[in-house]
Amino acid sequence: xxxxxxxxxxxxxxxxxTFITQFxxxxxxxxxxxxxxxxxxxxxxxxxxxxxxxxxxxxxxTNAIRIELNRFEKAGLLQSEKVGNKxxxxxxPSHPLFIDLQQIVKKHIGLDTIIENIVDKPESIERVYLTGxxxxxxxxxxxxxxxxxxxxADRLKILAAKIEKQIDKKISFAVYAIDYKIVxxxxxxxxxxxxxxxxx
Length: 200
What we know:
The protein is of the alpha+beta class. Helices cover 42% and strands 18% of the residues. The protein has 2 domains: 95 residues, Winged helix-like DNA-binding domain superfamily/Winged helix DNA-binding domain (Arc Repressor Mutant, subunit A, Orthogonal Bundle), CATH 1.10.10.10; 89 residues, Beta Polymerase, domain 2. α7 runs antiparallel to α8.
């Protein structure tokens, strides 16, 4: 896909934030709408949404959201498709800055810090999933994780307390011996959880 009409200032503005800390991102990217769109589409790239749905999620005017969607799409960072009378947007994983933008989002919510702590002593951990609203690209006060494997409860309690101090968010862990959503015969929506770490 050609990006001859990319808003270079906009792209550079976003790209520079790969070099800053979690606490400086909100200062650099001052648009709250833009931050919400980055979280929505670039944390879990399988997320898709349309304007009216984003208006309800963000509790912002359609005009403010439309302006930012147009900028992202013009820069080639988002792609879109028509389904009926709705225009669905999603991240463009083939864009050269896609990986960088994912790292921005992970840094912003503290996900990189969380994973580093969890897998510091991986024991018998096989996979780690982010679940709940964050998996759908929506910020909330608690970050929920499913850990597949065997982890001592006392270690998780200490770990959660340590991470909460580092990222200023509540952390909740649920541990499963087997991946219940893989072995379950029931159909489970993909957006319910997002794989953030896998052994090996």
